[in-house]
Amino acid sequence: MYPYKIGGVITLYGICVAVGVLACFIVVWLLAKRDKIESKYVDFITINGVVTAGVGFFSAALFQAIYSYIEDPSKGFDLFGNGLTFLGGFVGGAITFVGLGLIFRNKFQSKMIDICTIVPLGLLIGHAFGRLGCVFAGCCYGVPTDSPIGMHFVGVEGKVVPTNLIEALGLFVLFIGILVFYLKKKNPYGLPIYLIGYGILRFVIEFWRGDDRGGFVPGISPSQFWSLLMIVVGIPLIFILKKLYDKRVEYLKEHPIIEPEKKKKEA
After folding, report:
1. How far apart are CA 204 and CA 223, in angstroms?
2. Within its chain, how far is the Cα of 143 from the centroid?
């Protein structure tokens, strides 16, 4: 399944995934430090992120198992035998991350509105490297093509649309665009831009994806359904977050975040 290996054991796919996970946390940590996010909250985000990743992998397998079962119930329900779907993992992971954030929200000075762009940036860079790994793994490619953009993958006859590479490049571009916009002026719009941007990217790419993932909505793939939902949620979120962010900025003017060490010194 993984044609590109180092020493016959370590796969380039595994390396890309590992680099993606590390890059995700590094981006979050660096931006959190830049924005002077409460250190205890950064620790909480890290732990929350690890838990979220675990739930996300399980959710990715669960969603794909459900899709496959709907497509062909005769094969039975196999939780870990049908692969993973990123958007399924994203749904489960997002619910977990937000849920834990709300449960423990009163324990920290910093709030989720303070990281509305930081976390999506971490997710984007991690996802981009992960999808790049798909290129080396020879999975998630597109339909056969004779066009100049066609690529050969190990185990695949003829050239196919490199949807994995196209998606990876799209994710890197989206990451850079949101990052530059955020560094110019801190803002909460990274989350809705991510939802809308990736939603559009994935919806379009699905037209050239060659691996059938089953379906539960006639006329569109499961990923296109979730992509449309991301876009629908992202648009009103722009206005909701603006209102919440403006209130947060006003609040912090009168109640600046003070680290425990500084509190002790001032006392």
Report:
1. 10
2. 24
